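Figure S4 source data
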Amino acid sequence: MRNYFKMSVLLLSFSGILISCGGEKKEDKKKEKITLNQNKSEKKSDKKKDKVPASERVALDNKGVGPITNLELADNIDQDMANKGKGVYDKMCTACHKATKRFIGPAPAGILERRSPEWVMNMILAPEKMVREDPLAKDLLIEFNGSPMANQGLTEEEARQVLEYFRTL
């Protein structure tokens, strides 16, 4: 009799587990997963439509992070400085940047319409720090497939010459 009682309790416990675990139909689970996945893909496509690429985003109030905190540009372009900057740019930057079109990195043409002079100088002088600490630089890194800008070891004077060249593009 004891064995019969133990078997009955065991059987009832086992069937209770089966009932509690199998309460939902497989079809219901599939529909739920499909719905969740559709919502995720809809959110992603909405973000892509609303978000302006970092390379096109205007952020003139962002000075970036690095050694340059304030830089005033003269109204007129210093052509001698710009010529020196073109020489530096041609020697150090053209492996990744094309003046007027997207390449491994963004095109510098029109950069001062989207970025502050301080931001550009800090990106040239301290690209590692910018990518670590500046949100826009992080977004650019993502937009350009994780290709970080190499620190070319330019002096502030050389970076300023390059910036002056960018004003001529």
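Figure S5 source data
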Amino acid sequence: MMSVTLHYIYDPYCGWCYAAAPLLSAAQAVAGLQIRLHGGGMMTGARRTQVSPALRDYVIPHDLRIAQLTGQVFGENYFEGLLRDSSAVFDSAVPITAILAAPALGVDALNMLKAIQHAHYAEGLKVSELDTLSAIAAQLGAEPANFRSSWHSLSGATTEQHIQQSRSLLTQLGGGGFPTLALEQDGQLQRLDISPWLGKAEAFQQWLQNRSAAPSADSGVFCSMDGC
């Protein structure tokens, strides 16, 4: 089997990235396939978002569609707790930093992302708070004090540089938002259209296992940079 790299441009607050999570789990089981995460920073800086009735009304129809299409779980504490909590702020940089910190602590970055997504959508937890992220990291085997130290060392300039590099890759691929996936083979990057695979993780895994020719250049875009 020819080794390829699956590049995944994501955001922790992108609902359609949560929809794609089972596909990424399936990809983890493909022998020879490397997976690289690129946090796009959908809600950073001026895009940081305070929870409001308008935000709730915007995201719920998307969430219900995702649940119907993929079976992904959206919990009562998310719909009736987090999305009604006007004190909550969605800041992508905070969980992205946690995902960047994970590998040095022996935690797979994709597993950290999936745990953060579950905490947000299924449990309704505030994943822009360091205490929440520290607890998630501990559940995955990281020592809390080490996690916090690593998080602080990467927060700020390092995370911002990562986000800018991710956005540059998004532009390079011609992607319009998140999730955008691409296969890299022999130095060539081509975008994947994952829309046919949503809710079909086993079929996606088989497709990746059988993949030996150049990937498709179709788009895998579901969210705009303005929100998801």
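Residues 212-228 have pLDDT under 50 and may be disordered. The longest helix spans residues 53-70.
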